[in-house]
Design a protein that fits this description.
single chain, 516 residues, alpha/beta, five-stranded mixed beta sheet, two-stranded antiparallel sheet, 20 helices, 9 strands
C-alpha cells in the first residue's frame, strides 16, 4: 500500500472483504506527513505560495501531503467518505487541495459535528476501537454461541435419549406455541429448562431463530447418531470374539418388511449377553435376500460370518428350510454356525402343531377364537362379560363352591390364541374354563339381541360350547398344555442353559406319563 496519497487508488476499488483491513492498516500507519520535505513554491495570484508545514501540527490526525502531486489530502475522508456523499467534494480525497493562499479552507473542511469529515473520523475511531468493530462484535457473538452450543445440543440429545429409551413418540400434529401439548420432545425440553438456568438460557424461545435444534430433521439426525454409536459400542465390546445371531422378520405399520438382528456373545467378564443390533428394511423375505442383508449389516461394523458360531430363527420355512433356507445358506459358507431352534417354539410349536392335526382339537381352537371374536369383540361386550362373571363369583361364594382369599377369583377376560405367541393357547383355554358359565350367559344374551348377524354367530357358538366333544377337548388340551407350560416358560429364561433344560425335560416326562 503506497504511503503517498498521490499514488493511492480508491478504497472502493479494493475487494469488499479486505476494505476494512486496508483502512485499519492506513490508520495504524498514520497520515503521510513529510515534515522535512522542501515544499515547492507555486505562483498564486502573482505571489509565490507553498504548503505550510505548521499545518501538520494543527491538523495532525488527518492532514496528509503528497510529494508526487504537491497537494494536501484528508486521511479520514479518503478512507471512509462515500463517493456520492455531500460535503467537501473530491478536493481532499482524490484530486487534492492546492490553494495554499487559503489555509483556512482546512478548518472549513472539518466543519460541524455532522459534517462528512467528522462522520468519517467517527468511523475511523470505531474501526480502531476493537470493542465497537463489527468483526469483533460478530466474533464475540460467535464465541458466545460456541460456548452455548454444547449445552443446547446436550439438552436435545438428553431429551431424545429419554424418549428412545422409553419408546415414546417425539411429535404431535400441533406443535405451535398456542398448543397445550407440543409433543413429548418439546415438552421434555421444557422440563429440562425449568430445572436448569443454563439450559433455559439456550433452548426453545431463547435459542436463535435459525438454530433451535428442534426440527424433525435434526431429531432424525440425532436418532441415527445414537443408533450408530450404540452399534459401534456393541461391535467394540464384541471385539474379535465369536458370536451367534438371532433373526426374525415382520411387517411394520406401513406394511414394510423389517428384519431384526440380535447378537449373542460372551463378554470380557465371561457373561453371556444378548444385544439388539438393529432393524433393517428388506425388499422381500426370501433366504438369499435375508442372508445378503445380514452380511451387509455385519460388514458395516467390521463383523464377518466366518466368526459366526450359532444361528437361531423361528419356524418359518424361509428361515430354517433344509434346502434353500437361511440356515442352510449360512451353513454352506460356515460349517461352525450351528442352528438352534428357539426353545419356546420347539416345545409349544410342536404341541400345538401336532394337536391341530386332530380334527376335533383343531375345531375346538377354532371355536375358541370365534368366542373371543364375538363375545369380546367390543369394550361394551367385555364389560358385560365382566359384570356377569362378577355376579357368578358372588353366587358360588354364597353356596361355598369356591373360597375367597388373596389372589383368588381375579377378574379375567377372554384371550385369543395367537400363532406367534405360543403360550397364548394355554392362557386362552385357562381363562375360558374359569369363566365358561359367564360366557354361556353372555352368548345367550347376544343370541337374543336384535342383530341378526351376531345372533347367527352366537347360536353357532352355543351349539359348539354345549357339545361334549368341545368341552372334553377344551379340558384335555388345558391339561396337556398345562404340563408343558412351566417347562416352556423355564426354557425362555435368560439365564437358562442346555443342561438345566434337559433336566427340566427329564423331570416333566414322568409327570406327563402319570397324567396319561
Amino acid at each position: 500500500m503506497p504511503s503517498d496519497p498521490g499514488f493511492r487508488r480508491r478504497i472502493s476499488e479494493y475487494y469488499p472483504n479486505v476494505q476494512d483491513r486496508v483502512r485499519r492498516a492506513y490508520l495504524q500507519k498514520g497520515p503521510c506527513q513529510p515534515v522535512n520535505h522542501i515544499f515547492p513554491q507555486t505562483i498564486i495570484n502573482g505571489r509565490l505560495r507553498r504548503f505550510n508545514p505548521s499545518w501538520f501540527a494543527t491538523y495532525r490526525p488527518w492532514l496528509e501531503y503528497s510529494i508526487h502531486k504537491d497537494a494536501a489530502y484528508c486521511l479520514y475522508c479518503y478512507l471512509f467518505k462515500l463517493q456520492n456523499e455531500e460535503g467537501g467534494g473530491d478536493a481532499f480525497t482524490s484530486e487534492g487541495f492546492r490553494n495554499w493562499k487559503k489555509g483556512e479552507k482546512l478548518g472549513s473542511h472539518v466543519g460541524g459535528p455532522t459534517s462528512a469529515h467528522n462522520k468519517a473520523r467517527e468511523k475511523a475511531d470505531n474501526l480502531l476501537n476493537q470493542k465497537q468493530s463489527i468483526q469483533t462484535s460478530l466474533s464475540r457473538q460467535t464465541d458466545r454461541s460456541r460456548l452455548e452450543y454444547p449445552t443446547h445440543l446436550n439438552a436435545s440429545v438428553e431429551a431424545i435419549r429419554y424418549l428412545l429409551r422409553h419408546g415414546l413418540a417425539f411429535r404431535v400434529h400441533d406443535e405451535s406455541l398456542n398448543s397445550t401439548n407440543q409433543g413429548n420432545f418439546l415438552e421434555f425440553l421444557k422440563v429440562l429448562s425449568n430445572n436448569s438456568d443454563a439450559i433455559k438460557g439456550v433452548v426453545l424461545k431463547n435459542a436463535p431463530e435459525n438454530h433451535k435444534l428442534t426440527s424433525p430433521d435434526i431429531q432424525k439426525y440425532i436418532v441415527r447418531a445414537c443408533a450408530i454409536e450404540i452399534s459401534n459400542s456393541i461391535a467394540s465390546e464384541l471385539g474379535d470374539a465369536c458370536f451367534a445371531i438371532m433373526v426374525d422378520e415382520s411387517r411394520d405399520m406401513s406394511y414394510k418388511e423389517q428384519m431384526a438382528i440380535v447378537l449373542r456373545y460372551v463378554d470380557a467378564r465371561g457373561r453371556v449377553v444378548e444385544r439388539f443390533f438393529g432393524v433393517v428394511h428388506v425388499a422381500n423375505t426370501n433366504a438369499i435376500t435375508l442372508k445378503a442383508t445380514i452380511e451387509a449389516m455385519l460388514a458395516k461394523h467390521g463383523l464377518s460370518l466366518s466368526r459366526l458360531r450359532g444361528q437361531g430363527y423361528d419356524g418359518a420355512t424361509n428361515m430354517r428350510g433344509e434346502f434353500n433356507g437361511l440356515k442352510t445358506l449360512i451353513l454352506k459358507e460356515n460349517k461352525s454356525a450351528f442352528y438352534i431352534h428357539c426353545f419356546a417354539h420347539q416345545l409349544q410349536l410342536a404341541l400345538v402343531a401336532v394337536a391341530r392335526k386332530h380334527r376335533e382339537i383343531d375345531s375346538m381352537f377354532h371355536t375358541v377364537s370365534n368366542i373371543s371374536n364375538v363375545v369380546g369383540a367390543s369394550a361394551k361386550r367385555r364389560d358385560i362379560l365382566r359384570e356377569k362373571h362378577a355376579l357368578r363369583i358372588l353366587e358360588v361364594l354364597e353356596t361355598g363352591e369356591i373360597q375367597s382369599g388373596k389372589g383368588l377369583n381375579q377378574e379375567l377376560v377372554l384371550k385369543r390364541p395367537g400363532d406367534t405367541r405360543w403360550s397364548s393357547h394355554y392362557n386362552a383355554l385357562v381363562n375360558l374354563v374359569v369363566i365358561y358359565a359367564s360366557v354361556i350367559k353372555d352368548t345367550e344374551t347376544i343370541e337374543e339381541s336384535a342383530y341378526a348377524e351376531k345372533r347367527a354367530e352366537a347360536t353357532a357358538i352355543l351349539i359348539q360350547m354345549r357339545c361334549f366333544e368341545f368341552v372334553f377337548c377344551l379340558h384335555l388340551m388345558r391339561a396337556v398344555l398345562g404340563l408343558t407350560f412351566e417347562l416352556s416358560q423355564a426354557r425362555q429364561e435368560k439365564e437358562q442353559d442346555i443342561v438345566n433344560a434337559i433336566e427340566l425335560v427329564r423331570i416333566e416326562t414322568p409327570t406327563s406319563g402319570d397324567e396319561n
